[in-house]
Amino acid sequence: MSGLLEVTGLTAGYGGVRVLHGIDIAVGENEIVAVLGANGAGKTTLLRALSGTVRSSGEVAFAGRSLAGTSAARIARGGLGHVPQGRGTFTDLTVEENVRLGVISRPASTRGQADGDVERIYETFPVLREMRRRPAGALSGGQQQMLALSRALLARPRLLLIDEPSLGLAPLTSADMFSVLARLRDEWSLSVLLAEQNARASLKVADRGVVLARGRVVASAPAAELAADEGLRAAYLGES
Ligand code: ATP
Q: In this protein, which residues make up the domain named ABC transporter (predicted)?
């Protein structure tokens, strides 16, 4: 497996407080990796450190190049997209204006294909086409999550970091969200690093899972293996 993202000894924190204590993690081409862990384990901080929105040290190589000292904007333009928790929707802009904001982070060579990509997005999420002239604030929670994903896709990422896509969604909607991720991986040739508290659902679409506890990796294994490990789930994921 070729490592699209290779992370070694990543540390990060807020002010003087260290939250991540030497994380090793890798994501291959076309792979979905779920980062699991209880509240406060450090999942969000890991995604922020990778997208350059929280300071970190350690080695991060993306598509064979080191990201050390690279600004968040450059990281995004280089193909590493981040869909943060809370989704960052501009509620006064229309749905389509929100989607098109993703163009800003797009490689210049692909700007001409943006209209075609918006069309592909509407094929995947027909409800966004129906709502395209409405203010984004009119969307439901699940639809806003689709919008946040769509905006990130318009930047043409090779790897998407997605923070808790199922947060606040009803169980059925959240199952849809995970199957959409699997579909996007195939149709957009994406890799996905997914931070989730919902281990059961995310391991169904993930190829591999990594469990964090107090800022350290405590398990890393194929998704099916983690899903079957009841002891691990009880110890680190708050499930029984
Ligand atoms: P959650 O599912 O609640 O988002 P998480 O696994 O994503 O949890 P993080 O949000 O990365 O965990 O938090 C890890 C630790 O860092 C926690 O102890 C949290 O209190 C702390 N932390 C997170 N954000 C900040 C911040 N902006 N300033 C200071 N400490 C923070």
A: 5-239
Q: For residue range 82-92, what is the model confidence (pLDDT) as tens digits?
A: 998 876 788 89
ipTM of the complex: 0.94
Q: Is the CB–ligand 1 distance for residue 161 below 6 Å?
A: no
Regarding pTM above 0.90, the answer is: yes
Nearest to 182 by CA among 118, 124, 95: 124
Rounded distance from Cα 130 to ligand 1 centre (Å): 36
Ligand 1 atom at shortest distance from the alpha carbon of 46: 11
Residues in contact with 130: Cβ distance below 8 Å, sequence separation at least 6, in sequence order: none
Q: What is the pLDDT of residue 42?
A: 96
β-pair type (17-28, 3-14): antiparallel
Cα separation, 163 vs 192, whole angstroms:
11
Res 1: pLDDT:
47
Beta bridge partners of 213: 216
